[in-house]
Amino acid sequence: MVSGKYSALAGAISREQTIANISANLANINTTGYKSSLLSFESVLQGAQQSDNTRGIDFSRIKNSFTDFTPGAMRPTERPLDMAISGDGFFKLMGSDGLLYTRRGDFTMDAGGLLTTSNGLSVLDAQGAQIYIPDIDGGKVAVGDNGMIYILDRLDNREEVAQLAVVNITDKLKLKREKDTTFSLGNDTAAVSSDNYRVIQGHLELSNVNMTSEMAKMIDSHRIFETYHKVLKSFATISEQQDELGTVA
């Protein structure tokens, strides 16, 4: 009975963690460039251990937390500093503790012309340097498919400013999720030049969270959690009755 109680408890904890993960995805359904988080579970004991120690009762826990990098839909904004990547690739940023990578392209420009993310991180060029956009003086900013940034004057003469760094990751599953839709490199992975991409100016990549799917998983997880909770209450009731029987003379 004790094994069954702890199995139900392990299941309830796993469902609670699943619900928290789904809640985080739903909270970011309108976050530009957000990539949904997924969980996988494993048995704590395997093979003979599960058979001998728990009589086949399963104890589960989180095995991995990983990211779904499926591209999100594109939304036109007509803002010249909004950029989206079609294909493989990430924008390269300078974070406070090192390089970061993101698919979020709602960029802005500070008073000195520095190109930054919406939360103030510097956007880097293909050489790893910060990008400064000079005073356009009535002109406009244009961005080519390859990420080259130009200044177009009133006569449509163009001046190259810098080329956005768009890189691919050798193993996306090993990226570490950081704040504000950014990722850092994990062990045994690297950022390499990307060839299969196109930068689309005046567009943003939306979150790839599927609300219908997440809501269905939320309902299912709540039901399973409630089932485990009822099982735990049943075990508690049985224990109380056993204690009462033990006191009968």
Radius of gyration over all CA atoms, rounded:
26 Å
Shape category:
elongated
Please tell me the overall pLDDT: 84
Percent helix, as a range, is 25-40%
Structural class: alpha+beta
Based on the model shown, name its key terms.
single chain; seven-stranded antiparallel sheet; 249 residues; 30% strand; 3 helices; three-stranded antiparallel sheet; elongated; 2 domains
Provide the fold topology.
Blueprint: H1 2-27, E1 37-43, H2 47-54, E2 60-67, E3 74-76, E4 83-87, E5 90-95, E6 98-102, E7 108-109, E8 115-116, E9 122-123, E10 140-143, E11 148-152, E12 158-163, E13 166-169, E14 176-177, E15 182-184, E16 191-193, E17 197-201, E18 203-205, H3 211-246
Antiparallel strand pairs: 1-2, 3-18, 4-17, 5-6, 5-9, 5-13, 6-15, 7-8, 10-11, 11-12, 13-16, 14-15
Helix pairs in contact: 1-3
Brief sketch in words of this structure:
This protein has helices at 2-27, 47-54, 211-246, and strands spanning 37-43, 60-67, 74-76, 83-87, 90-95, 98-102, 108-109, 115-116, 122-123, 140-143, 148-152, 158-163, 166-169, 176-177, 182-184, 191-193, 197-201, 203-205.
